[in-house]
Design a protein that fits this description.
single chain, alpha+beta, Nucleoside Triphosphate Pyrophosphohydrolase, 8-stranded mixed β-sheet, 3 helices
C-alpha cells in the first residue's frame, strides 16, 4: 500500500460552514495529489491489503510536515476511503481543524487556502468524489 493521504477541513461551530484545505500543490490531499487514473473504491468492493495505516500516525505526520501545532487536527474516525491507483491502493483519512476559526494566516504562509466545496470544481474527479463523501460524513 502506498503513502496514505489526508483531507483536512474546518467547520465553523456557530454556522456549520465547512471549508476544506487546498494545499500549495493544488490538491486537497496532504502528502501529494492522487495519481491520474485513480478511482475511488466503493465500500462493497473487496480489497487485499497487507498493511493498514493508523490515522494518528498520518495526522501526526501532517502536523509535523505542515508546521502545525501538535493536536491541531482531530481524526474523523468514521471516515475512511480507499483509492485504487495504477501503483496500488491508497488510504484516505479525514481530519478536522479543532480551532474556533480556520487558521487562515497559517494557510496563507504555506501557500494553501480554505475553500468551500463549491470552489473545488477544477479538482480531479476522484478528489471531488472524496470531497462529496467527506461532506456527507461531516454533515451526517
Amino acid at each position: 500500500m502506498q503513502v496514505p493521504r489526508l483531507v483536512m477541513f474546518h467547520i465553523q461551530s456557530t454556522s456549520a460552514r465547512t471549508r476544506f484545505l487546498m494545499l500549495n500543490h493544488g490538491s486537497i490531499c496532504a502528502f501529494g495529489g492522487l495519481p491520474s487514473l485513480s478511482k475511488l473504491v466503493e465500500v462493497s468492493e473487496k480489497t487485499h491489503e497487507t498493511v493498514a495505516h493508523h490515522p494518528a500516525s498520518v495526522i501526526g505526520r501532517a502536523e509535523r510536515e505542515l508546521g502545525l501545532v501538535a493536536g491541531s487536527l482531530v481524526n474523523e474516525r468514521d471516515f475512511r476511503a480507499k483509492v485504487n491507483t495504477p501503483d496500488g491502493l491508497i488510504e484516505v483519512f479525514l481530519a478536522r481543524f479543532n480551532s474556533i476559526d480556520p487558521p487562515f494566516e497559517w494557510a496563507a504562509e504555506h501557500g494553501a487556502k480554505f475553500i468551500d466545496i463549491t470552489q473545488a470544481r477544477g479538482l480531479p474527479t476522484v478528489e471531488l468524489q472524496i470531497l462529496r463523501r467527506a461532506y456527507e460524513q461531516i454533515l451526517g
